[in-house]
Structures are given as C-alpha cells and as structure tokens.
Design a protein that fits this description.
4 helices, alpha+beta, 7-stranded antiparallel sheet, 7 strands
Length: 163
C-alpha cells in the first residue's frame, strides 16, 4: 500500500470516529487522557479542539507539547493512534469556521464563552489497526480458537504512517 493510500485510510478512520482520547503529560511525568470531540473539518494533518484556556489540557501542552490522540471506531473495528505536537491557538476566524451548534452543550455562550480557546494538534505519525473481519463474532471466535490451538489469530492490519 502506498503512503498516500495509508494517509487516506487514516483520514477516513479519523472522520468515522469523531470522538477521541487526547493524552498529555503532567508536570510530574504522568500521562493523562481525556475524551474530546474532534471538530468537523476534513483531517489534513491537523486536529482541532475547543477547550477553556485555563484547562489542565492547555497547561499540560504548554509544558509538554507532544501528545497522543487515539480514536476508536468499534462499529468498523478500527483504531487509530496519532502522535503530534499540540499548541493553543487564539484565532477568532478559525474558531468561527470550526464552530457548530452541538458545542453549546460544553460552551453555553457560544463563541462568546469566557476563556474559550482552540487547541491544534499537528500530526506527525499515525498507527492504525484495521480488523481483518467485519463480524465481531468471527473476530471473537478467532481469539477463542487461538486460545485452544495456540495459533495466533489473524488480528487485522497494523500500519505506521508518517504524516
């Protein structure tokens, strides 16, 4: 598979999943993950999130900008892990472009919400796992068979992609 095909696969997996876990590092070196909603924009190597400027997320990326963003799409049985550099972005035009009505659940005053800011993650690498079988039952039976026979099941495709 070509690098472009791999990138296209990552784009599709990210757009299908939408909710992810963003992992940052605390000042004392612990990893912390939190669920975040990816903004509805085609993945071009950058991931965009709304948050509060005084959040732990912003504090942590200011100290340690390297983050991991993990997506899971159990319906398709696909998983993507993206490593990249995060930064806080104050850009009203970009915020207006990315804003959508469902965000009011977290930011009740819309774009006028005090301390509202953007976080941008510039993807550097991605690893993805794609199930070999479309049926969860078939996959689970494969693992059960492996437990009995000692033979490793075909767990699907795992690729690392430079973005």
């Amino acid at each position: 598979m070509s690098e472009q095909e791999q990138r296209d696969k990552v784009r599709k997996m990210v757009s299908d999943a939408r909710i992810c876990m963003v992992t940052t590092m605390t000042e004392d070196g612990r990893h912390v993950s939190r669920p975040m909603a990816l903004q509805d924009v085609e993945f071009d190597g950058d991931l965009w999130f709304f948050t509060y400027s005084d959040s732990d997320l912003v504090e942590q990326i200011n100290r340690h900008p390297q983050v991991n963003v993990a997506f899971s799409d159990p319906k398709q049985q696909n998983w993507v892990s993206i490593a990249g550099a995060a930064s806080r972005v104050e850009n009203r035009g970009k915020a207006e472009e990315l804003w959508s009505a469902p965000l009011k659940a977290w930011f009740p005053d819309g774009l006028e919400t005090p301390n509202l800011t953007l976080v941008k993650v510039t993807a550097q690498t991605a690893e993805y796992w794609e199930a070999a079988h479309s049926s969860k039952v078939v996959t689970m039976l494969g693992y059960a068979k492996a437990a009995v026979t000692g033979k490793t099941p075909d767990a699907g495709e795992n690729e690392t992609v430079r973005l």
